[in-house]
Specification:
- The complex is a heterodimer of chains A (115) and B (113).
- Chain A is built from no helices and eleven strands.
- Chain A has 115 residues and is mostly beta strands.
- In chain A, the strands form two sheets. In chain A, strands 2, 4, 5, 9, 10 and 11 form a six-stranded mixed sheet that branches. In chain A, strands 1-3-8-7-6 form a five-stranded antiparallel sheet, with no helix packed on it.
- With 113 residues, chain B is mainly beta.
- Chain B contains no helices and eleven strands.
- In chain B, the strands form two sheets. In chain B, strands 2, 4, 5, 6, 9, 10 and 11 form a seven-stranded mixed sheet that branches.
- The chains are: A mainly beta (115), B mainly beta (113).
- Chains A and B meet through strand 5 of A and strand 5 of B.
Amino acid sequence: QQQVKQSPQSLIVQKGGISIINCAYENTAFDYFPWYQQFPGKGPALLIAIRPDVSEKKEGRFTISFNKSAKQFSLHIMDSQPGDSATYFCAASPDRGSTLGRLYFGRGTQLTVWP
Amino acid sequence: NAGVTQTPKFQVLKTGQSMTLQCAQDMNHEYMSWYRQDPGMGLRLIHYSVGAGITDQGEVPNGYNVSRSTTEDFPLRLLSAAPSQTSVYFCASSRRPIGGELFFGEGSRLTVL
């Protein structure tokens, strides 16, 4: 069973537009929500992460919005640029507790930003 | 700063052959893991290790073996390759298993004919 559901699978946005990727989870033990960015031929790299004590976190043009009651979180990319074209993965894990916990990834969103 | 180094970057195998994907990290991370990435399936955890001598299975462990004799190295062994194991494999490490940043290697693309 998929622990983290991500949508859409692919997204095409014009340069300067807003890209929005959504994720949902069921496990209430999750309290760490990172986003990873992957360029073609490279490994994923951490982009931004949020913990549920805040509803929003912004780093430059990238913002995570978090809705704890709905168990949903989303990535917003403002003023999208062609260099943002990549695959984006949301993920979730418990932040405390068992040292044998793990990170669960969504299936990814391939973002293409047209110039 | 080398980070996480994977070798080889590309490999073609015939069905039934065996091979080892190598992974090494120089960040003194206790946690290391192997993922496979397939189109539309995202990143799926194969095996992971929380320290030397300790390994455990992820969600897709069948057909793969791992061992962790040192903090730095975490090789992934395919004992008898099958076409279903054609994939891109990523090794990752972090300071702790959860709640921290995962550092990924650049991947190993494996084709099984």
